[in-house]
Design goal:
This protein is of the alpha+beta class and 360 residues long. The chain folds into 2 domains: 245 residues, DNA primase, PRIM domain (Alpha-Beta Complex), CATH 3.90.920; 71 residues, no CATH class. The strands form 3 sheets. Strands 2, 5, 6, 7 and 8 form a 5-stranded antiparallel sheet that branches. Strands 1-9-11-10 form a 4-stranded antiparallel sheet. A two-stranded antiparallel ribbon has the order 3-4. Strand 5 and strand 6 form a beta hairpin. Helix 10 packs antiparallel against helix 11. The relative contact order is 0.14. It binds zinc ion. Zinc ion binds next to helix 6. Its EC number is 2.7.7.-. One of its GO terms (biological process) is DNA replication, synthesis of primer.
Length: 360
Amino acid sequence: MAPHKTTPDYDSDDAMQDVESMQVDSVSAKERTVKDDLEHMFDDDLDDEPMVDASNAHKNSSGKVNITAISDIPSANPSDPEDMLQFYSRLFPWRQLFRWLNHSELPSTDFAHREFAFTLHNDAYLRYQCYPTFETLRRDVLNLNPSRFEIGPVYSTKPRDRKQAKGSFKPIEKELVFDIDLTDYDEIRTCCSKTKICIKCWQFVTMAIKVIDVALRDDFGFQHIMWVYSGRRGAHAWVCDKKARKLDDGKRRAIAAYFEVVKGSSQSGKKVNLERPLHPHIRRSHDILKDDFKQNILENQDPFRTEKQAERLLQLLPDRQLKEALREKWDSTIERPSSDKWKDIDALAGSGVSKASYVS
Ligand SMILES: [Zn+2]
């Protein structure tokens, strides 16, 4: 996978209002596409290294991490520098950011050697900024008033001193980050496309969170996972365990591959080719998402309603007899809902039209 750069923090799109108040611990359902933002973290070409958005998370009094988006504030405009300045000076959780990245109350190189990068309102991009404390970071942010800032890796030395360090300057750790983005779901979401999102398609994000979170905990043993709203059309998982931060590129790629179920380009027909028996992680994900599939996909997205959509579904069935029987049934009922069509597949497969079983 190519290095992935996350999207800007804030989006003034009205559609965002529905999802901005989500709480990080309200993990909910389906895996489809995940991208390991940190791939190539240890590449030699440091200038190509992806950065990850600065958090827009803060902890509330109950200790839960809330999503803070500037568009939560009545009449605030994230593209207005003055509003951003107010946000950084009054609302941004600087101390929590420091405690999170420093792993201790006492200032350490975990924070001091961490790279921050700023995008300014004139689109200038400043990399390799670093700070001994959150106060110094805050002061710079208030001076620069960036439209966004990003958190990079911890380096072997202060990123500002990289020229003096010459060959020994290299990234030594970084959280393992997964990016779930609704634009990756455009082929299967019917309610919105591209930059638009609504509460219906947000369910794809919650489904992905549900299965990824459990796999990261149960299969890899990670414990410190922070889910944050990406600021636009998705969510990011920051896996902060020490063993995750120390992973090299190869291991990061291997973990990303573990989650990969959908393969192929937009032109290819069947993109999910699972071997039977199912891997326990896939079986568990299937079980977790069973109800979501019925409600959020078949009912709410209704992705097989039209003739054209139904034909796409039929193309995925390998059994010719079953396919013909379904086509005949569906041709006689215009725009039969997806949930009924799904039941038809089970019913006809079970009735012996086909010898293969499609009932899972
Ligand atoms: Zn939608």
